[in-house]
Give the backbone structure.
Amino acid sequence: MIRISNKKIIVATLLVVVLAGNSDVLLAQKKTARKKPPVYYTVKTGHVLRVRLNSDLGSEKARVGDVFTTTLVDPVYSSGGVLVAPEGSSVSGQVTAVQRAAKKGKPATLDVQFTSITLPNGIQRHLNGSLTDLSESGGKSDNEGTVTANKTSHRKVKFIGGGAAGGAVIGAIAGGGKGLAIGAGVGAITGAVAGRLKKGSEVKVKSGTEFGVILNQSIALTKYAAR
């Protein structure tokens, strides 16, 4: 009788352990099922981010592959009006080509590309963006401050040595195209680049300069939430 009782106790104990384990598994499965997948919101191709350069950038010292950072000046909203990137987010760029100033009045040029955005909560996303200007002719704003480039605006421009302040302009110099002079945080339209550039000017873009980053591809981000 004693042996039988001991066997029953052991079996009962094992049964309790198994049931307890199963209940923990079921509870974990329920918690997992309750956790909803994140909802992503789209920022469309052609959207322009207004950014501010964090450190000086110039053709004399810059090398292909150099990485630089900018700070987002205006918040970014999805096409549905959801905040996805607040002011103060970091947008990283990379130098893709450098042409030093040459004789016969040829100014220096500096090509850049923008590769990622890092939000204040630590979330980072890849992006494909190019330099653009912030002139009224280069884009239009909606009631939420969203800037979208016009179809006729330059999709890919560069920094060009010169400008009214002797620093740099944004534009395409080929064929005497027009450019946009840029200063510390503000842009001013110049005339034809070829007629106003100083001879052999190097590109000098000062820290604090504001310009646009146009998205070449749409990006998907969740609704921003601070951590």
